[in-house]
């Protein structure tokens, strides 16, 4: 009889479900959102600090030297006399 009464009782886990949802958001923030924001901030700093004469690598893996810097693009010399124009966002890293 006691078992029948317990099975009929409503589940009162409202606060527990709320805490579980909050914990999931915290984990999502610290493992996905925060690192992505950090990488985006570092990439913006890199793009803003590009100067003439810097050796760079593009996101496609092309190595070269910056010969001209414009507002939204850079001209990269990949070989003697071979110059390519790239958008600043295409620069992956500076060597």
From TrEMBL:
It is found in: Cell membrane. It holds the Pfam family YajC. Its main location: membrane. It is a single-pass membrane protein. It comes from the Bacteria. Keywords: Cell membrane, Membrane, Protein transport, Translocation, Transmembrane, Transmembrane helix, Transport. The chain crosses the membrane at residues 12-31. PANTHER family: SEC TRANSLOCON ACCESSORY COMPLEX SUBUNIT YAJC. Belongs to the YajC family. This is Sec translocon accessory complex subunit YajC. It comes from Hymenobacter citatus. The gene is yajC.
């Amino acid at each position: 009889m006691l078992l029948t009464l317990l099975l009929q009782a409503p589940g009162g886990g409202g606060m527990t479900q709320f805490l579980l949802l909050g914990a999931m958001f915290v984990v999502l923030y610290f493992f996905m959102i925060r690192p992505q924001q950090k990488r985006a901030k570092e990439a913006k700093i890199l793009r803003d600090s590009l100067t003439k004469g810097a050796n760079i690598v593009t996101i496609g893996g092309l190595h070269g030297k910056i010969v001209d810097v414009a507002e939204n693009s850079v001209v990269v010399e990949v070989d003697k006399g071979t110059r390519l124009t790239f958008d600043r966002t295409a620069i992956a890293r500076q060597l």
